[in-house]
UniProtKB/TrEMBL annotation:
This is Aspartate-semialdehyde dehydrogenase. It comes from Rubrobacter tropicus. Its EC number is 1.2.1.11. The keyword Oxidoreductase applies. PANTHER family: ASPARTATE-SEMIALDEHYDE DEHYDROGENASE (PTHR46278:SF2), DEHYDROGENASE, PUTATIVE-RELATED (PTHR46278). Keywords: Oxidoreductase.
């Protein structure tokens, strides 16, 4: 491991802010930290003042690792600039969805498939926020019992929509969601496909299969936006490969990396406890035969985005936290 790395963070929004905070909190070995965006300006990220540079090809000269905070689509930063960063010697860790299902791009959650981070061609994808917290909890069950089917309902915070989602809740900003979010629940995250599933629900199915290396795993998701600032919650139903006891399932979850176990069946985590914590919280565990059910909560801006991205970088450079 070298003494320090030149790191670029592309994007000065909520996720970019958390990436900077996580790099500092986890004491990532930095030689230089650059923040890039569409326009040059002064900005405060994680309580630190930055001269934000323009995200253009030359800005990646000398960069070792480039975090793209998540702007997506043909006009998004990753599609426009990831190749330029890679050609200049950087490894790109992309938080958006553009490359996740590319068979040539590893999709990594370190607690689940850390080894995949080494097998890259300059680009590594960070998973969807709701997928990441779920696979962290599914992985120990898969290792211990095998898993055959997953049914999940999500209850996702508005910060998953960026600053616009937060403003929609706090200030009544219109146009972010199809219906008002205040005191409401909206079972529609992303566009609806021909099969009736939203893009968020489809991401959870396909990404879970790829991350866990289970291409035929049955995954059925219903994704719901709720009026919570930070922290996604999920109700998860898992059909295991064999019968298990409650004690066995609890022990598998309690000892899993990245999981904080909240307690007995009458105990439960909520987004308020999860906010600001990089782990995934699990509670309300129930087991009957080969079926396990539980509730999990995680900070969508941390483990669901920034923390996972920085953990990927740590895998690349050999840091252990």
């Amino acid at each position: 491991m070298r003494e320090g790395y030149t790191v670029a963070v592309v994007g000065a929004g909520l996720v970019g802010d958390r990436i900077v905070a996580e790099l500092r909190r986890r004491d990532f070995p930095l030689k230089e930290l650059r923040v890039l965006a569409r326009t040059a300006r002064r900005a405060t990220l994680a309580g630190e003042e930055f001269e934000v540079g323009v995200a253009e090809p030359e800005a990646f000269d000398g960069v070792d690792i480039a975090f793209f905070a998540g702007t997506e689509g043909e006009k998004g930063a990753a599609v426009q600039l990831a190749g330029e960063a890679i050609s200049r010697g950087a490894v790109v860790i992309d938080n958006g969805s553009d490359f996740r299902m590319d068979p040539e791009v590893p999709l990594v959650v370190p607690e689940v498939n850390a080894g995949a981070a080494k097998d890259h061609n300059g680009l590594i994808a960070n998973g969807n926020c709701s997928t990441i917290q779920m696979v962290v909890t599914l992985a120990p069950l898969a290792r211990e019992f095998g898993i055959e089917k997953v049914i999940v309902s999500t209850y996702q915070a508005v910060s998953g929509s960026g600053r616009g989602g937060v403003e929609a809740l706090e200030d009544g900003r219109e146009g972010v969601y199809p219906k008002p979010i205040d005191r409401n629940a909206i079972p529609l995250i992303g566009g609806v496909g021909d099969d009736g599933y939203t893009s968020e629900e489809t991401k959870m199915r396909l990404e879970t299969r790829k991350i866990m290396g289970l291409p035929d795993l049955e995954v059925f998701a219903t994704a719901v936006r709720i009026p919570v600032h930070t922290g996604h919650s999920e109700s998860v139903y898992v059909e295991l490969g064999r019968e298990a006891t409650l004690d066995e399932v609890v022990e598998a979850l309690r000892s899993a990396p990245g999981v904080t176990f909240s307690g007995d069946a009458d105990d439960f985590p909520t987004p308020l406890e999860a906010a600001g914590d990089p782990n995934t919280f699990v509670g309300r565990v129930r087991v009957e035969g080969n079926v396990a059910q539980y509730w999990c909560v995680s900070d969508n801006l941390l483990k669901g985005a920034a923390t996972n991205a920085v953990q990927i970088a740590e895998e690349l450079v050999g840091v252990r936290v």
